[in-house]
Amino acid sequence: MAIWNLGSINADLVYRVPHLPAPGETLASLEMSRGLGGKGANMSVAIARAGAQVRHLGAVGPDGGWMIERLLEYGVDTRLIERRSEPSGHAIIAVDDAGENQIILYPGANRAISELALAEQLSAARSSDIFLFQNETNAQITGATLASQRGLQVAYAAAPFDPEAVKAALPLLDLLILNDVEAAQLAEATGLEPRALPIRDVVVTRGVKGATWYETDSGSATDIAAIPSNAVDTTGAGDTFTGFLLAGLDRGKPMRQALDLAAKAAAIMVTRVGTADAIPDLKDIEDRFGPGH
């Protein structure tokens, strides 16, 4: 089995600041670093580090060779990543002493993915595979439609949140992952609470309050407790959670076990500074929580 991830690839420019800047404020950064990021790349790295096979569908510009190399180092299948003439995507991230962040995103090549190439790439997918996508690329509905037609399980991490994009994707989805703010916005846009959405599984993450899994066929709601951690940087924690969740499902774990694994990975992630380069692996989880995870 494999996970096909249509996702963004960004250079993350991270600035440590004493507090998040207010409108009009000029603020000196205490530190600066460049790393691999983008919600798609983060999730691909998390999937690979969780022991599953992931094929990344995306694009970089002429300046993006180092990002492909970094993904490959982490075990991501990069053979399907396009090289485009547009500059690679990048994010400017401010992180304060409490671990909260503020992000400015430039999409670049992430919005120039060829739909024709995507169709050709997905022709090799099998019905036992999973298709994952987010909201930082173009061709989302095209990719999800092609995957659904081929019988793949379709999973959607609905961020950055756009209610119209989610409404368009709903008929294609088997699994929807969103945070509690996004869930409230979707309920306002559709009139449907998470348990009433026409999707088999809905996962709502709630930060330090954990997560809730809604199994809409049965109407059940299962709470997943958050694991206490000394957070220093919350950037990428949600992407790590999603990647480990999908990897657990791909490896045959029941949803509850996959969610528990995802919560443990996110708990480690928030104790580290960085994005894709800071994502834990299964050995990190075993070292903290013991074997059998």
TrEMBL record:
Any GO CC annotation of this UniProt entry: cytoplasm
The protein's annotated pathway: Carbohydrate metabolism; D-ribose degradation; D-ribose 5-phosphate from beta-D-ribopyranose: step 2/2
SUPFAM superfamilies listed in its UniProt record: Ribokinase-like
Enzyme Commission number, as recorded: 2.7.1.15
Cofactor note: Requires a divalent cation, most likely magnesium in vivo, as an electrophilic catalyst to aid phosphoryl group transfer. It is the chelate of the metal and the nucleotide that is the actual substrate.
Taxonomic classification: Bacteria, Pseudomonadati, Pseudomonadota, Alphaproteobacteria, Rhodobacterales
Protein name as catalogued: Ribokinase
The reaction(s) this protein catalyses: D-ribose + ATP = D-ribose 5-phosphate + ADP + H(+)
Binding site for ATP: N179, T205, R206, G207, V208, K209, G210, G238, D239
Binding-site positions, K(+): D233, T235, M269, R272, G274
Function field: Catalyzes the phosphorylation of ribose at O-5 in a reaction requiring ATP and magnesium. The resulting D-ribose-5-phosphate can then be used either for sythesis of nucleotides, histidine, and tryptophan, or as a component of the pentose phosphate pathway.
Keywords: ATP-binding, Carbohydrate metabolism, Cytoplasm, Kinase, Magnesium, Metal-binding, Nucleotide-binding, Potassium, Transferase
Top-tier EC class: transferase
Carbohydrate kinase PfkB domain boundaries: 6-281
Gene Ontology MF terms in the entry: ATP binding; metal ion binding; ribokinase activity
Protein source organism: Roseivivax halotolerans
